[in-house]
Structures are given as C-alpha cells and as structure tokens.
C-alpha cells in the first residue's frame, strides 16, 4: 500500500513537472509591426506561418507607410518597424537600426492598353520631372502622360526618386497613400504611369522593361534590373525586444523564412 502511494506521488510530480516544462516552452504575447504597405504580402505570409507554429503569439500589422513605421519604433509605439527603404543617417542617429530581409523591385507600371514596353531610367526621370509630357515622345500613342506616385514619406517613393534622381522634382498628378491605390488608378487610366512594389503588381497593369531588362527575381538578385530597393526591419539599437517579438524577429530573418518571402514575390537575402 505504501509503495503504491509513493508511486502515485512520483507520477504526480512527473506530470506537474511536465506541465510546467511545457508551459515554459510556449511563448505568449502580441508582436506589433507598423510601416511599409509594399511589405504587406511578405509580412502577411510570414505572420500567418509563424502564428500557426506559435499558437500563443499574435502578430499585428499596421500598413501606415515606411516613414510612419520608422517613427512608431522610435516613439515606442510598435515592436518592429517595416521600411521599404534604408534608414537615413538622421534616423540612425535616433537610435534605430535596420536589418534587410529581402530585395524588392519597383515596377514601372502602365495601363495594359499602352503600347510602350520599355523605358530607360533617363526616360522615366524625364517623364516624372515633366520634360517628357506625351507618350508619343517615347514611342507610344499621342496622349498626355498622367503621372501617378506615392505620398511624401513613402518608402516606395523614396526608393523610386533616389534611383531615378528625381527627388523633390516629380510633377505628380496624384499622390496616393498605398501601393494598391497606385495600381488601381493606373489600371483605370490608359494614359497613366506609376510605380509599385513588384510583389504587389497584378494583371490589371503592365510592368515595363527598364533598359531592356524585365523585372523578375533573377534580374533583381543579379542586379541587372536597376529599379530596386531593400525591405528592412527597423528596431531600436538599445533596448530589448519582448520574448515574443524576438522570436518573430529571429524567425523572419532566418533561412527558414526564405521560401515564404520568395512566394510573396520578393527576393530573400538568405
């Protein structure tokens, strides 16, 4: 009888220890991300898989634009910022650091009815600064070019203007606040031109060649497609992420995330 009691107590202790150990292994909490609308597909895919493998953790995504996401990290309003451009020196000076997780091509998009298929970076710069005003000047139909772009603070706009050398010179007809809005607007106007993350481009628009090179994973990775930028995770240099946020950060910067990033339309670093 005494032996049975001892055995029962021992088994009970083992069960309690096992439950405690199990609890210790599962992280719980919420990870908040904020920033680039261009990174929506990438972060959405990574978030979905991560949450499925870590049931106690919820990841939120607030698509506010790169500049707003960077500010949110600096002000402590989110765990991880998402930026589709590299950090500027003044942002690094505020105690922020960037980690590149993928490369993304910026597609130059037109309406599918547009007969133009290829532009040089010089052509694109002249179009956006107003030097070239009509599609017939670059081999298209006789129609005034309608310039569509992103709002100030957008990582896509910053990347586009840096690459084309058009910073603060673009004569935009419309400044829109999301990648989706740019695509929808260009899709609805045969004379329009815009720029958008390649990962977000749909069949409703046509992505142009630039300097004879089609935007694709291969041409982005080998550098032959010149209109490209980085997808960056923004965190504070000092200070520690929560356990849940650190686990998410470690996952999305690991080689395990590469295939998901690729399927989302971007080119993984690893």
From TrEMBL:
> Any idea which UniProt keywords this protein has?
Cell membrane, Lipoprotein, Membrane, Palmitate, Phosphate transport, Signal, Transport
Q: Which Pfam families match?
A: PBP_like_2
What are its GO cellular component terms? plasma membrane
Task: State the SUPFAM superfamilies in the record.
Answer: Periplasmic binding protein-like II
**Record's superkingdom?**
Bacteria
Topologically, how does it sit relative to the membrane?
A: Lipid-anchor
Its predominant location is membrane
Name a biological process GO annotation: phosphate ion transport
| Protein name listed in UniProt | Phosphate-binding protein
């Amino acid at each position: 009888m005494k032996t049975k009691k001892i055995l029962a107590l021992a088994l009970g202790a083992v069960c309690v220890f096992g439950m405690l150990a199990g609890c210790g292994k599962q992280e719980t909490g919420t990870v908040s991300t904020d920033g680039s609308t261009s990174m929506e597909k990438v972060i959405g895919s990574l978030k979905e898989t991560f949450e499925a493998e870590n049931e106690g953790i919820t990841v939120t995504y607030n698509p506010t634009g790169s500049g707003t996401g960077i500010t949110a990290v600096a002000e402590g309003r989110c765990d991880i910022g998402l930026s589709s451009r590299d950090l500027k020196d003044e942002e690094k000076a505020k105690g922020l650091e960037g980690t590149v997780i993928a490369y993304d091509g910026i597609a130059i998009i037109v309406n599918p009815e547009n007969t133009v298929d290829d532009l040089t970076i010089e052509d694109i710069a002249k179009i956006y600064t107003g030097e070239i005003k009509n599609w017939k000047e670059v081999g298209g139909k006789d129609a005034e070019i309608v310039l569509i772009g992103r709002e100030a603070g957008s990582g896509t706009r910053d990347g586009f203007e840096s690459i084309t050398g058009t910073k603060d010179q673009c004569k935009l007809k419309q400044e829109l606040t999301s990648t989706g809005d740019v695509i929808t607007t260009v899709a609805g106007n045969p004379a329009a031109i815009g720029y958008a993350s390649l990962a977000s481009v749909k069949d409703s628009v046509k992505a142009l060649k630039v300097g004879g090179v089609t935007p694709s994973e291969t041409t982005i990775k080998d550098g032959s497609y010149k209109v490209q930028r980085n997808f960056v995770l923004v965190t504070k240099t000092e200070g520690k992420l929560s356990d849940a946020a650190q686990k998410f950060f470690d996952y999305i910067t690991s080689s395990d995330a590469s295939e998901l990033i690729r399927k989302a339309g971007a080119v993984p670093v690893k």
